[in-house]
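Exam prep: given the inputs below (a chain plus NAI), describe the expected output before reading on.
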Amino acid sequence: MLHYSIAVIPGDGIGPEVMDEGLKVLKAIEESHGGIRFANDVMDWNCNYYLTHGRMMPENGLDTLKDYDLILLGAVGAPEVPDHVSVWELILPIRRAFQQYVNLRPVKLLKGLESPLRYKEHADLDFVVVRENTEGEYSNMGGRMHQGTPYEMAVQNNVFTRYGTERILKYAYSLAEKKPKKRLTAATKSNGINHSMPFWDEIVKEISQEHPDVHTTLYHIDALAAYFITRPETFDVVVASNLFGDILTDLGAAIVGGLGLAPSANINPERKYPSMFEPIHGSAPDIAGKGSANPIAQIWSLSMMMDHLDLPEISGVIMNAIEQVLVDGKVLTPDLGGKATTRELGDEIVRQIYEAT
Ligand code: NAI
Ligand code: MG
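Solution:
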């Protein structure tokens, strides 16, 4: 019997709504596969917790999480709490303390969906973005001075370490090696950012020499963003710094159907610490409480979790169930043009999982 402990953080807004459906899927996997058990502990760490306790998670929160095999996150963020508090005090500490330096985000057009890119087919939209997840532009180095005066100023420093840059590129190359086309595209901006980005480019060139069978291309981020639209079929593995990867993946989500369909994995490849799986989207206060959020991004993140656990068969069962529901096209949430609720769509995916096993 395989046994995994999961720390579940539903979060705020639509986070708990989509998480409910994710947990139903885990239960369906347990019941239909026999040999696997998930022990889930739900943590109430979110903006409400912050408003009561003055912090997003308890002081020993990271210590508590450390002992789990996996972390499952919904989304955090509420209008009453500044975003830099909710994100910086919950998500970023987890990503950093647990060295989840790989943020993996597939850009794949699922069966049954159409891309807003008129001339692109399913085979054209199937690649993965590897985003650096612990440093780069999202550093807390810098500060503010002279607040409230005409001389007010803010400085925010980018941090690119050799260690951090090498390890994300090595991971991206190892992924590209396993792809049939073996293509790696690195995002840069060395024409405008003249210290950190040339450094990044140099390390890309160094690591590329260790992988002569992988075809490497460096593109400036602005051109690369345009190529996501005009020639997405040329990508296999795209590797990017923290900020560039963040922006590219919202764009990636948009070309394959929207944020409701975009999952991500925060991975500690050495498996020394738990990895974390979550949808890309946030807490969507505009639709929270209406029961209309699309749970597919959350459920797809579970499929990524199964891949991480080396359970490709179960990962496939989840993806097939999602695609079957999309192909049937009868039970869809409003973002997909349907009228179904979050729960109805989740139930339909669960039904497909039972049907397949
Ligand atoms: P958002 O992703 O929450 O929403 C953007 C738009 O996409 C909204 O119109 C929303 O209704 C729609 N949308 C998002 N997920 C959807 C789903 N599953 N089904 C259907 N429609 C969906 O981004 P926004 O509005 O910029 O941020 C809202 C809050 O979420 C903020 O507090 C922000 O800081 C937080 N946030 C948290 C993240 C996380 O927990 N990892 C990531 C991004 C934002
Ligand atoms: Mg983002």
